[in-house]
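User: I'm writing a short methods note and want a consistent example. For non-specific serine/threonine protein kinase, I'll paste the sequence; you return only the structure tokens, no commentary, since I'll be parsing the reply automatically.
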Amino acid sequence: MTQRAATQRTPSSPPVIPGYSYVRPLGSGGFAEVYLYEQDMPHRVVAVKVLNGVGSTAQTRRGFEAEADVMARLSVHPSIVSIYQASISADGRAYIAMEYCPDSMRSRMRSATPLTLEQVLDAGVRLAGALETAHRSGVLHRDLKPSNVLVTTLGRPVLADFGIAEVRGEVEPGAQIALSYPWAAPEVVQTSTSGTIASEIWSLAATLYTFAAGRSPFESAERAQNVREKLAARITKAIYIGLPGGMGNGRLDDVLSRALRKNPDERYSSMLELAEALRDLQREFGYDLTPLEVMSAEWAGALPSVNTDRQRGPVVSTVRSTSRKTERAALRAEHSRTDRSASLQRQDARPMSPMTAMLIGIGGTVVVGGIITGIVMMLQGAL
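Assistant:
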């Protein structure tokens, strides 16, 4: 479900969220609604995705929290929607406050002609970089399609809706399988896998094909031929049909047809390889080269487990009575006092020099001698 998705179901009332003012609804889906809010500080408009109470279970709650965790980790990438906050509203509903994108690639295609070759290549490189970053972090999106590619206020495509993303190796048995049929790989349509890197390469290629052609690669011009069973049969056969109008003189077809091969092993091995193939086309046609932005290896470790029964939500922050700077100053003062005390003790314990010992001995002898002389004189006077 995207920020601008629509449904026939009447959305529930927007929640009261401290620091945010409700503006209007943006869309709704099976388990969540999206609203436009104004954030008070810093002042900006944001899209707020709210988990509704219809069919809400502990599993959907964990999935919603997992989406927030995944987006927070990956939104550092410029081609992934930024997340600002995730918490629990006053009425107990979980929500995610994120970057507001005023448009989607899907709606743009409905209101205008398909994208130009230059636009398709630019979007492909940006999205491939975002997905390569997700894959290096151990995350599969599992629902790539044009409506999940939003357009920022700067006019750039960004990837959204990680609602059924999978942390590789941690998917639960019986987990939901993404079946956005027109863009799903054959192995996903046949439910033999919930998603792999290879199936995501297929889905991105199918999405780019849609940008260029105005329809998905296996969609028929006859609406009656696009029922799920017939569409699934064509996807399973994976017989590639070139782009209409000879876009890119067949060169884009060469890249997309490889990514859309039926055998996953015959596709590109990674999103990085697909992105480089698209950049080669940019060079060939003399277009500006889109930066290929991928998270560096040291930051792309696997995500921690997010499947937990622990209730998550707002917590009360604790503020220490003293700052760390004050504590460091007190510790240095204590060390200084300890050092001075130890120094004095060392001075007291120093051994006596020979000269000092001789003078003390002479002084002691004089004192004793004086005492003896006085006693003798007292005895003589008594006699």
